[in-house]
Design brief:
Layout (H helix, E strand, L loop, with lengths): L70 E3 L6 H10 L1 E7 L9 H17 L9 E3 L13 H6 L9 E3 L3 H4 L15 H7 L25 E4 L3 E5 L12 H13 L5 E5 L15 H11 L7 E4 L5 E8 L2 E8 L23 E2 L6 E6 L3 E9 L2 E9 L17 E6 L5
Parallel strand pairs: 1-5, 2-3, 3-4, 6-7, 7-8, 8-10
Antiparallel strand pairs: 2-13, 5-6, 9-10, 9-12, 11-12, 13-14, 14-15
C-alpha cells in the first residue's frame, strides 16, 4: 500500500511583542512572546525564612537615595510621547495591587500578570492602555531577600510592558533574626536596591530579565503625574502599621503641596479598613490620616494591601466619605484570606458597620485579581479584575476579562 501523505504542519504565527521602552532607553520587558504555564518555571527556587512568621518589630528606615521632599515625576520613566498623550487625552490609566511575591509558587502571580499584560497589548477598545503598575507592597516574601527578587519579581513580570513603582510592605521590610548575613540594619535592603536606585541600572538579581531598577527617591515618596498626585507611605513591619514622626511631618507637607486641581490618591500597605478578622483595619493609621487631613485636603481614594483579598469600602475620614480599597490578592500563593461566613456573603451586601458610618460595598475573597484605575479631571473610574486560577491544559489567556467590580469617584468637590 502506498504510504499516506504526511499532513502539512501547522505554521505558528507568533510575532514578538513590541518593545515599550521608557525615557532614556529604560528597559521594561522581554522581547519574546509569553507561553502558557500551569506550574513554576524551570529552576524556580526561593529562600524561605524558617521561622514561618514575621518579627512584628519596628525597623529603622534606610537613608533616602534622593533629595527631600522625595518626589518623582512620571515623566522620568515614560517617554515624552506617552506623557503628551496623557495630557492630550486628559486621561491616565494604571494598574494597582499588592502582595504578589510567590515564595512557594509563582503560578498565581504569573496568571495575574498575564491578564495585566493583556490590558496593555492588545488592550481594550475605547480605553487607553495602562501606563504603569503601582505596587502596594509585599513584593518579596518573607523578608525582602535580595536573592528572591528574580523569582518573585523580575521573572513573573518578564513580559509586563510598563514601569513598575512601589511602596514597601511589611514583608519587604522584615529581617530574619537568624540570618547572620541579614542584620536589622539591612531592613529594606532589597527594596532600596531594586526600587530606589540612583540610576536605572540592570542589577544582577534581574538576571535575564531586561527590566531596569526603578529610581524612586525614598521608601516613602510622592509620584507626580499629569492627572493625579499619589502619596505613598511606608507603614513598616508591626501589625496595624507604624509611622515615624519624620514621615508623619512629611505626609502633612505633601498633603499641603498636592495640586488642588487633580486627583489625590493615598497608598499604604496596611489597611485602615478590613473585614478580615486576623488582619483588621488599623485605627492607628486611620487616626494619623484624620489628624493630617483635619485642616488639609482629604484624599479622593485610599489604596491598601496586606490582606490577601479584595475589599471595597466607603470609609469615613473626618466625616467625609472616601473610597478605601484593600487589593492584596496579587498572587501570593493559592489560599486567600477569607471573610467569615455566613456573616459576609460575596453575593450580598453592602454591609453596614454598627460602630460607624463605614460600609463594605463589595468584596472578593476567592479569586486573585488586580485593580485598573482610570483617572480624568472629573473622576476616578475603578475596576477590579478577578482572575481564574490556572489549571493543566488551559490555553494561554488571549483576551482581557470582564470586571468583577466597578466604581466611580467624582472629583472636584474637594479640590
Amino acid at each position: 500500500m502506498p504510504a499516506k501523505p504526511k499532513k502539512n504542519p501547522i505554521v505558528l504565527k507568533s510575532a514578538p511583542p513590541a518593545i515599550r521602552a521608557g525615557r532614556h532607553g529604560r528597559r521594561f520587558h522581554a522581547p519574546r512572546t509569553p507561553s502558557g504555564f500551569t506550574t513554576d518555571p524551570a529552576g524556580f527556587q526561593t529562600e524561605k525564612d524558617p521561622r514561618g512568621k514575621g518579627t512584628n518589630a519596628w525597623f529603622d528606615l534606610p537613608q533616602p537615595t534622593g533629595s527631600s521632599p522625595f518626589r518623582m515625576d512620571l515623566s522620568t520613566v515614560l517617554t515624552p510621547a506617552e506623557i503628551a498623550k496623557i495630557n492630550a487625552d486628559e486621561r491616565m490609566v494604571f494598574h494597582a495591587v499588592g502582595d504578589t511575591g510567590g515564595v512557594n509558587t509563582t503560578t498565581y502571580q504569573q496568571q495575574v500578570a498575564t491578564y495585566m499584560e493583556l490590558d496593555i497589548d492588545p488592550g481594550l477598545p475605547g480605553r487607553p492602555a495602562p501606563s504603569f503598575f503601582y505596587h502596594l507592597g509585599d513584593v518579596v516574601y518573607y523578608d525582602g531577600e535580595v536573592i528572591n527578587y528574580y523569582w518573585e519579581f523580575y521573572e513573573p513580570y518578564l513580559h509586563y510592558p510598563g514601569p513598575i513603582v512601589a511602596i514597601p510592605g511589611n514583608h519587604d521590610g522584615d529581617v530574619d533574626p537568624n540570618d547572620q548575613f541579614h542584620q536589622p540594619s539591612d531592613s529594606l535592603k532589597g527594596f532600596v536596591r531594586n526600587f530606589c536606585s540612583q540610576a536605572a541600572v540592570h542589577l544582577p538579581e534581574a538576571s535575564d530579565a531586561p527590566r531596569d531598577a526603578m529610581t524612586q527617591p525614598n521608601v516613602y515618596w510622592t509620584l507626580n503625574t499629569p492627572l493625579a498626585t499619589i502619596i505613598g507611605l511606608y507603614t513598616n513591619v508591626p501589625e496595624g502599621g507604624k509611622l515615624g514622626p519624620d514621615q508623619i511631618i512629611w505626609f502633612e507637607q505633601e498633603l499641603e503641596h498636592a495640586d488642588p486641581g487633580i486627583a489625590l490618591i493615598l497608598a499604604l500597605h496596611h489597611p485602615i479598613y478590613s473585614a478580615y478578622g486576623a488582619h483588621p483595619g488599623s485605627q492607628y493609621l486611620k487616626s494619623i490620616i484624620e489628624n493630617a487631613t483635619k485642616t488639609r485636603r482629604t484624599p479622593d481614594l485610599i489604596l491598601t494591601g496586606h490582606v490577601h483579598d479584595y475589599q471595597r469600602f466607603t470609609g469615613s475620614i473626618n466625616g467625609n466619605p472616601v473610597t478605601t480599597i484593600v487589593a492584596g490578592a496579587g498572587g501570593y500563593n493559592l489560599k486567600l484570606h477569607t471573610l467569615k461566613r455566613p456573616t459576609f456573603d460575596p453575593n450580598k451586601g453592602p454591609y453596614k458597620f454598627t460602630d460607624g458610618p463605614e460600609t463594605l460595598d463589595k468584596f472578593n475573597d476567592f479569586q486573585h485579581g488586580y485593580l485598573i484605575l482610570d483617572v480624568t479631571k472629573d473622576k476616578i473610574a475603578g475596576s477590579y479584575i478577578a482572575v481564574p486560577d490556572p489549571a493543566a491544559g488551559d490555553p494561554v489567556p488571549a483576551k482581557p476579562l470582564t470586571p468583577y467590580d466597578t466604581f466611580s469617584i467624582p472629583l472636584g468637590m474637594g479640590h
